[in-house]
Amino acid sequence: MFSVYVAHIITGTLGVVAMRCFNILMIVSVCLCLSALSASASYEYPTKVLYLRDLGTKYTGETVSLTAEIITVAGDECKSCRVWFYVEGPYWEGDHWVGYTPYSDYAESGLYTLEWKIAPGMSTGNYAYYAQVLDSDGNAMSQLSDGYSFRIIEENMRARVIGLWPIDDTPAGANVDFLAQIENTGDTPLDYNCQVKFYVTASSDSGTQKYAAGSRDCVTDDFAGTIDVLGAGGTRWYKLPWTLPYVSGKYAYYATVEYNGREINEIPPTFSFHVIEPRKASVISLLPVSDARTGNSVTLGTVVENSADIVLADGCKIAYYVSGPSKGGLKLSGFVGYTDCAQTESSGLQALSYKEQRDYSLKWTPPLAGEYSYKAVVKYLETEISPWSAEQAFRVGDDVVQEYPEPEPSDAEDTYVQETLPEELPDAAEMTTTTSEALTETTTIPENDSAQAPKAVGNVTEVGPDNPFTGFISIIAIAVASMYIIYKASMNLKTKKKKQERQT
Fold first, then answer.
1. Would you give per-residue pLDDT tens digits along the chain (504 residues)?
2. In degrees to the nearest 10, what's the CA dihedral of 436, 437, 442, 445?
3. Helix extents (H) in 178-336
4. Which of 242, 272, 251, 273 is nearest to 173 (CA)?
5. Whole-model pTM?
6. Cα distances (Å, whole numbers) of residue 330 to 214, 306, 367, 370
């Protein structure tokens, strides 16, 4: 019995001790909680969100400005802090933190704005947004602000980007055409307040850069060459010429449709392409020009090498520039012709491949004699893709005129030119015979081969045949002279005969 009594005493004592310990622990826990609550209530964040700006009613696809006024309530600096914005609404999916703007250090107060785009497909309804300042590690530097309500409604102007025209891998610096086909999916025509905007993104190890390439008015029909609204349910292609950056890499382009600055299309498709190394070439040498004459063609030749890791084919050409003598006070100079980089061979049209060298030539006719020089450059379309070559000088001589020797006179002409009358007159019979022979000889002179000059090439005057009337007068003159000689001879004979009769 005693042992039972002792056990009861010990048990009771332990129970009392345990109860007291439990009470003490409860009191300590309550004190700790009250202390924590007191400390939390007394903690003051270094910054505070004073208010949010009203947004009103917004459209799907519109970009809105989420704005909060922040004040620094404590003297501590808030380095690397950020003003984050939180949005909630019906059927929301994904992260509600939509973005942040950096907080200005040492600023006592200021307005902080985040441009946030309402997705065109976002559900309509009532929304609210909040703001809070966090440091770079995500620790709260202000309390979460109260929410500010706004409403999103659907834009009655709607469009859809049906497709984009593909672009091949293209050298840097080349000109390309961005093409987007747009459909008006709303019930209202798209007028002058509507624009199709093109954007380009470039991806690299350092991140992605976005370029605003340009825009086209929705009323412009680039292919029909007309100006007209894009009616409800209608489709149209829009084209924007653009020059690629001089940096190779992976690129993409896409198009959006905006009405009064609000994007009214669904999420647009994108088309990816590569910008590759620019086309490059070198003019290794020029061919010399020799024995050049005016009126004859000469050969202007080049040796060209492809210096880039891309074939040179369509659009590539070698341009030849010639500088020469002056004419009429103006110096002869300018481009005289082109040859294509791709050449036709037995296997077809062959492009100039990487590191390949090839001979090219151009036939050209110099217009004037004198000192010339020529040089060449390789072009792709109108862009020079090689340095200018050194100049190659050459001389052009005058055209050769063929010369003919003077014809030698005939024997008959020599006889006639050298014939002279005798010093003593022969008797009448001899004189008659001589004169008759002379007359006969004169009238039977063979035709002189030199009566008509040869028609020589060049600037030689052409001589025609003698006038027949002039020949006839010459014959009459010779006949009269002969008759006069005969008459004088007979008179001399008569005088001589009379003298002989008187002497007898």
1. 555 454 555 555 555 555 665 566 666 565 565 555 444 445 678 888 988 999 888 888 888 999 999 888 766 667 778 999 999 999 887 889 999 998 776 566 788 999 998 887 788 999 999 999 998 888 898 899 999 999 998 878 889 999 999 998 888 888 899 999 999 998 889 999 999 999 999 987 777 889 899 999 999 998 888 999 999 999 999 999 999 887 888 999 999 999 988 889 888 999 999 998 878 899 999 999 988 888 889 999 999 999 877 888 888 999 999 999 887 777 888 999 999 998 887 777 888 988 899 999 999 999 888 999 999 999 988 888 899 999 999 999 876 544 445 555 555 444 333 333 344 444 444 444 444 444 344 444 444 444 443 333 333 334 444 555 556 666 777 777 777 777 777 777 777 777 666 665
2. 140
3. none
4. 242
5. 0.45
6. 45, 36, 14, 14
Q: What are 140's two structure tokens? A: 């709260």
CA 4 to chain centre: 111
How many CB atoms sit inside 10 A of residue 306's CB?
25
Closest of 222, 491, 124 to residue 230, by C-alpha:
222
- The rounded distance, in Å, linking the Cα atoms of 32 and 39 is 10
Neighbours of 36 (CB within 10 A): 10
Domains of the chain by start residue, with CATH: 47-153 (2.70.50.30), 159-276 (2.60.40.10), 281-397 (2.60.40.10), 411-495 (no CATH)
Between β-strands 63-72 and 109-117, what pairing exists: parallel, antiparallel or unpaired? antiparallel
Q: Select from 196, 177, 197 the least CA-distant residue to 241.
A: 177
Radius of gyration of the chain (CA): 56
The tokens describing 449, both together, are 């081969």
Q: What is the residue-wise DSSP string for 30-41?
A: HHHHHHHHHHHH
